[in-house]
Amino acid sequence: MTTIAAPAPAPRARPFEGFTQSLTLSWRTLVQIKHNPMELIDFSIQPIMFLLLFTYVFGGAISGSTGDYLTFALPGIIVQNSLFGTLNTGVGLNTDLTKGVFDRLRALPIARWSPLAGRIAADMVKQAWAMALLLGLGAIMGFRVGTDVVSVLGAFLLLLGFAMAFSWISVLVGMLVNEPEKVMIFGFAVMFPLTFVSNAFVQTDTMPGWLQGWVHINPVSKLADAIRGLLSGGPVAGPVWMSLAWAAGILAVFAPLAVRAFRRRL
Amino acid sequence: MNHAVLAEGLAKRFGETTALDGVDLAVRTGSVLGLLGPNGAGKTTAVRILTTLLRPDAGHAEVCGLDVVRQAHQVRGLIGLTGQYASVDEMLTGAENLLLIGRLFGRPRAEAKRRARELLDRFDLTDAANRATKTYSGGMRRRLDLAASLVKQPRVLFLDEPTTGLDPRSRLDMWQIVRELVADGVTVLLTTQYLDEADQLADEIAVVDHGKVIATGTPAQLKARTGAQPLIVRPADVADLPIVLSVVRDVTATEPVVEGSTVTASVTDPGLLPAVVRRLDDARVLVAELALRDASLDEVFLGLTGHRATDHADEPETEGVPA
Questions:
Q1: Distance between the two ends of chain B, CA-based, in angstroms?
Q2: Rounded Cα–Cα distance for residues A143 and A170 (Å)
Q3: Which of B71, B90, B101 sits opposite A11 (nearest CB)?
Q4: DSSP bridge partners of B257
Q5: How far apart are CA B282 and CA B246, in angstroms?
Q6: What is the ipTM of this complex?
Q7: What is the pTM of this model?
Q8: Across the A/B interface, how many CB contacts are shorter than 8 Å?
């Protein structure tokens, strides 16, 4: 009996294949929005609400005028919204795990890392959309960019870079919990104190002294300062470096932990 | 290559639980192996190892001559998997799900779309092609799951409980589809809790219990080996139940089970049926139902292991049978 040799596929996916597979998988995450427009509203309405409420409800009380407050708070709201947005990554991954989509993908001859990379890339697109939305709405409400196009692009890149590093925390949680809702619960428990105990919404010197120490080193404050500098003008280099250092630190700690949890879970 | 799937001594533990305890399997190329066993027997774990989703703690396995651990990526190129857990994305449409998989196999967009249309057509899903999968019925969903594992024609197809939870009609559809695939030359390994499903589809059956293969053979061999079939008698008048009970007890020489007004006993000799009829007739008992059913998984299990298949999943293995 003659046997037909298997047309031996490559022993593993080539890096370029992994790249196109990641793009295909991020297409998959984004095309979901088409069938579930609620998702678009979900990640658009929260930033709009925050911007409107903070500016018009608290703005006068905090800064004396809503216009001044908008200039101060818009960068902070952009940062806060972006960090909350990273929770999507963990929720999405956990949903894929619990619903079995991940097993379907893992039984295909694709690069091991492409489902993770595809998800993160898609979430970066959503992040960019939310930031553009906030800037657009802010402009309508009277926010004026005090710098140039390059600085605004720099703000986008810095925010996306930081969010990407931060989303590894979300990936880790998504791998450890057994249902998507728990990612959100964790997220709210950590994100609210993290983003509010910062200078994102109010000046640091209005807070009690014992809080100020944390506010000064909080990465959210650094990032908010950096985005402020890049959008409105003011000191840029210091906060940008600090933000990048924080991003690198978070990445160095959480990416390996998340990848380990990812391997163990699978 | 005589065997498309070969496994030797597969073992897997999850913490305290032994899911697989030395499983050997062999599926001849072009044939269908049915992995038969109750919930928690280790069927899914075996499939997950063979489809590269899980590493075995011990033992080794090959698919088309390729090692499932060391050559996992190559194995993935040759297999299809449809299971309780390996699922399509319910937020995407049927067409998008198949397009996604085609693209992940490296097909150009146009070709992937064409293949998706072909499969949707073949599985009678064309009308639902552009609806989100979450709106699909159970049967449609299962057909799409199967289509998804055929985007690139696999050499070996793993079907993990392909009809669990389906209505009888969808179940028959599914069986028909599997037969067509086998006719195309695909090797199939399927797991099931239903003896009749294994009977209908499999060339060979491996019975799994507590992580071990406890019997293998053709469906006919297996049934002959276990022999027992349930004999069911239900009197027209419940008042006759005690008579029926004693008749069945006498004739079968076993202790029958009474559920409602139905008396059931396991018998190995089909010749006992006429004896029961005669004795009941003598006693002038009117019978509403009297049947010798085909052996079910329960009987196979009872015959092979001495315990029932259905209710031991939650039971500690060492616990004695309550009196």
A1: 52
A2: 31
A3: B71
A4: B264
A5: 13
A6: 0.86
A7: 0.82
A8: 89
